[in-house]
Design brief:
The structure holds 2 protein chains of 2 kinds. In chain A, 27% of the residues lie in helices and 21% in strands. By secondary structure, chain A is of the alpha/beta class. Chain A folds into 2 domains: 223 residues, Alpha-Beta Complex (Quinone Oxidoreductase, Chain A, domain 1); 161 residues, Rossmann fold. In chain A, the strands form 4 sheets. In chain A, strands 3, 4, 5, 8, 9, 16 and 17 form a 7-stranded mixed sheet that branches. In chain A, strands 12-11-10-13-14-15 form a 6-stranded parallel sheet, with helices on both faces. A two-stranded antiparallel sheet of chain A has the order 1-2. Chain A starts with a strand and ends with a strand. Chain B has a domain of 126 residues: START domain (Alpha-D-Glucose-1,6-Bisphosphate, Chain A, domain 4, 2-Layer Sandwich). The chains are: A alpha/beta, B alpha+beta.
Chain lengths: 390, 198
C-alpha cells in the first residue's frame, strides 16, 4: 500500500509499504477514505519529537471502511468508521473511568519504558506519533491496523459525508474537552489563545456550553476571521497588548476561563536521548511557553486554566506564584476522545457544530508531502489540509 | 554499618526494593541463601481482575511463557517441579530446574532454582486485594546470583539493560493479557507477540 513516511527533518515521502494485517483478536483493518494533517504532526515534521524511526508512517486523524476484522472485534465489514487517535483498551482502571487518553495497556511494554522515564508513568498508545506512544503505524496511508476495535471506532451513518465527521478523530473532541475543562458558568467570558483548528472548535464548544463571551487571540488575520465567523471577539497580538486588552474588555476583572490552544512552540523537546536527559538535566532544553505564561497571567483571580495545547518537556520561568496567589484551577491532558464521540456525532448530525469551515485544502493522499510543506509555511491561508484516497 | 542502612529502610513502610542502599539488600539476601552475591528486583502492578483469577493463571507455569519475554517455555513435572528453558542470544538457550517452595492459594507462589542451575534464582509472586473496586495488587520479587565471566555477559545481554527493566516489562505484559486478553504490539505479525488468546 501507499503511505506517508517520515525520514528526517522536513523529509516526509510517499512510499509503498507492506499492507497491515490482523495481529491481535480485537484488531480491525480500516481502508482509509479521508485523513488529515494535524498541527502536532508539524512537530514530527520539524523533527522535534524524539524516538521517530525512518520509515515510520505518520497520521492520527483518519476514517474509512472496515475491510477486515479479528475474532474479538465488534465491527462489521463495510461499516464506515472514524477512528480516535488515542488507542484505548476499555478494560483498565483509566478506561473504566473514561480517562481513555491515560489507558494503561495500549502502549507496548517495551515502548512504554520511554514515557515512564520521562513522566513517571507511561503514556498511552496512539497512532502515528513516534515510539513514545507505541510506534503504531499512522493513518496517512491506504490501510491501517486498529487495535481494540471494539472500543475506539465510531460508526458513522450514511448521509454524513467524510468532511463533516473526520475531526471526531481528534481536534473536535479536543476543542470540546478544552471548553469543558473551563467549567463554564453563566455569564462567563472565555479567552482562547490560538485560532488553529483546535482553537476554532474550542470557541464553538465554549458557546454551546454556555459562555457569555469568547475572546480569541492569534496573529494570523485569516484565522482571526474564522474565529469572528463563530461569534468570537478577536485580538491580534502583533497590534494589541493582550493582557491590557483583556483587562479592559472585561471591566478590570479578567476572563473567567482561559484556554491555551497553542502548545509548545518551535523547538519541541530539544534533547537527543530521552533516558539520558532525565539523568543529566543539563541536556534538557525547555519547551517555549510564552502563550502558557500569558494565559496564567491574564486569567482572573479564582479562574480556570484549560490547557489542550501539547507540551512535552519542562518549562522555564513558569509563573507558579501567579497560579498560586490567584488561586487558579488548571485542567489539562490529551483528549479522552472516546468519552465524547457519541455526543459530538449527534451534535454534528443536528447541525449544532460546524466542522467543515476550517478545511482550507483538500489534496490526494499522494500529495501529502506537499500538504505538510504548505501547512508549515503558509499558516495564514492554510488552516487544515485533508487528504483523500480517491 | 550496612545493617544500619537496611534497618532504617525497614522503618519505612515502603518495600525494600525501593531502598536507597540496594547493595546492602543484596548482601543480606546472599547471606540468607548461602550465596556469594545476590541482586534483588521487586516490582508491583495493579491488575483489574480478582486475586483468584490471577493466582490460577500464574500457578500453571506453562502460561508464564506467554508474557515473560525471555522464557522459551516452561515444562511442568509433578505438582511442584518445573523445567525452565530461557532464550539466549544467537539462538541458544539456558536451562534450569525449579521447585515451588511456597504455595498459598490466591495469595502467594514462591519457587527456587535447583542444583545445577546456570543462574541461581528464586522468585516470588504475591497477590493482594487492592483498594475496593480496584482489583489486585501483584508484587513480583526476584533474587538472583549474577553470574561472572562468559555466562555473565550472556546474562547481561539476555536481560537487556537490567533485570529491573525486564521485570517491569514482563509485569506490564501480564497486566495487558489479564485485562484485555491480548498483549499490545505495534510490530508486524512475523515479529508479533506470543501472548494473544487463541
Amino acid at each position: 500500500m501507499r503511505a506517508l513516511t517520515w525520514h528526517g527533518k522536513h523529509d516526509v515521502r510517499m512510499e509503498t509499504v507492506p499492507d497491515p494485517q490482523i495481529v491481535n483478536p480485537r484488531d480491525a483493518i480500516i481502508k482509509v477514505t479521508s485523513t488529515a494533517i494535524c498541527g502536532s504532526d508539524l512537530h514530527l515534521y520539524d523533527s522535534y519529537i524524539p524516538t521517530l524511526h525512518r520509515g515510520d508512517i505518520l497520521g492520527h486523524e483518519f476514517m474509512g471502511e472496515v475491510v477486515e476484522t479479528g475474532p474479538g472485534s465488534t465491527l462489521q465489514k463495510g461499516q464506515r468508521v472514524v477512528v480516535p487517535f488515542v488507542i484505548a483498551c476499555g478494560k483498565c482502571f483509566f478506561c473504566e473511568h473514561q480517562q481513555f487518553s491515560a489507558c494503561d495497556n495500549s502502549n507496548p511494554a517495551d515502548k512504554a519504558d520511554m514515557s515512564e522515564v520521562l513522566y513517571g508513568y507511561p503514556m498511552t498508545g496512539a497512532f502515528g506519533y513516534s515510539h513514545l506512544t507505541g510506534g503504531y503505524a499512522g493513518g496517512q496511508a491506504e490501510y491501517v491496523r486498529v487495535p481494540y476495535s471494539d472500543v475506539g471506532p465510531i460508526v458513522v451513518p450514511d448521509g454524513l459525508e467524510d468532511d463533516k465527521v473526520l475531526f471526531l478523530s481528534d481536534i473536535l473532541p479536543t476543542g470540546w474537552m478544552a471548553a469543558e475543562n473551563c467549567e463554564i458558568q453563566p455569564g462567563d467570558t472565555v479567552a482562547v489563545w490560538g485560532c488553529g483548528p483546535v482553537g476554532q472548535f474550542a470557541i464553538q464548544s465554549a458557546f454551546v456550553l454556555g459562555a457569555h463571551r469568547v475572546i480569541a487571540i492569534d496573529h494570523h488575520p485569516h484565522r482571526l476571521e474564522l474565529a469572528r465567523s463563530m461569534k468570537a471577539e478577536v485580538i491580534n497580538y502583533h497590534d494589541v497588548k493582550v493582557r491590557e486588552a483583556l483587562a479592559e474588555m472585561t471591566g478590570g476583572i479578567g476572563p473567567d476561563a482561559v484556554i491555551d490552544a497553542v502548545g509548545m512552540e518551535s523547538h519541541g523537546f530539544a534533547f537527543d536521548n530521552v533516558v539520558d536527559a532525565i539523568k543529566t538535566s543539563v541536556k534538557l532544553g525547555t519547551d517555549r511557553t510564552h502563550a502558557l505564561r500569558e494565559v496564567i497571567m491574564a486569567c482572573r483571580k479564582g479562574g480556570r486554566v484549560s490547557i489542550p495545547g501539547v507540551y512535552g518537556g519542562v518549562a522555564d520561568k513558569f509563573p507558579i506564584g501567579a497560579l498560586m496567589e490567584k488561586g487558579l484551577t488548571v485542567k489539562t491532558g490529551q483528549t479522552h476522545v472516546q468519552k465524547y464521540s457519541q455526543k459530538l456525532l449527534e451534535m454534528i448530525g443536528e447541525g449544532r457544530l460546524d466542522t467543515t469551515y476550517i478545511i482550507s485544502h483538500r489534496l490526494p493522499l499522494e500529495e501529502a508531502p506537499r500538504g505538510y510543506k504548505m501547512f508549515k509555511e503558509q499558516q495564514d491561508e492554510v488552516t487544515k489540509v485533508v487528504l483523500k484516497t480517491h | 554499618m550496612p545493617d544500619e542502612h537496611l534497618d532504617r529502610a525497614k522503618a519505612s513502610d515502603a518495600p525494600l526494593s525501593a531502598a536507597v542502599h540496594q547493595r546492602d539488600l543484596g548482601h543480606e539476601a546472599a547471606e540468607a541463601r548461602g550465596w556469594h552475591e545476590a541482586a534483588v528486583v521487586g516490582r508491583s502492578v495493579t491488575i483489574n481482575r480478582p486475586r483468584a483469577d490471577l493466582y490460577a493463571f500464574w500457578r500453571d507455569f506453562r502460561n508464564l511463557a506467554r508474557f515473560l519475554e525471555n522464557i522459551e517455555r516452561i515444562d511442568v513435572g509433578d505438582d511442584r517441579r518445573s523445567h525452565w528453558v530461557v532464550k539466549a542470544p544467537a539462538g541458544r538457550t539456558v536451562e534450569w530446574d525449579a521447585q515451588i517452595t511456597e504455595d498459598e492459594p490466591e495469595r502467594l507462589i514462591a519457587w527456587t532454582s535447583l542444583e545445577g542451575a546456570d543462574v541461581k534464582n528464586t522468585g516470588q509472586i504475591a497477590f493482594a486485594d487492592a483498594a475496593p473496586g480496584r482489583g489486585t495488587l501483584v508484587t513480583a520479587t526476584i533474587v538472583y546470583d549474577p553470574p561472572a565471566g562468559e555466562l555473565g555477559k550472556l546474562f547481561a545481554k539476555l536481560f537487556q539493560k537490567e533485570p529491573k527493566v525486564q521485570t517491569r516489562r514482563d509485569l506490564r505484559r501480564f497486566k495487558q493479557l489479564m485485562e484485555t486478553g491480548e498483549i499490545s504490539t505495534s510490530e508486524a505479525p512475523a515479529a508479533g507477540p506470543r501472548g494473544s488468546f487463541s
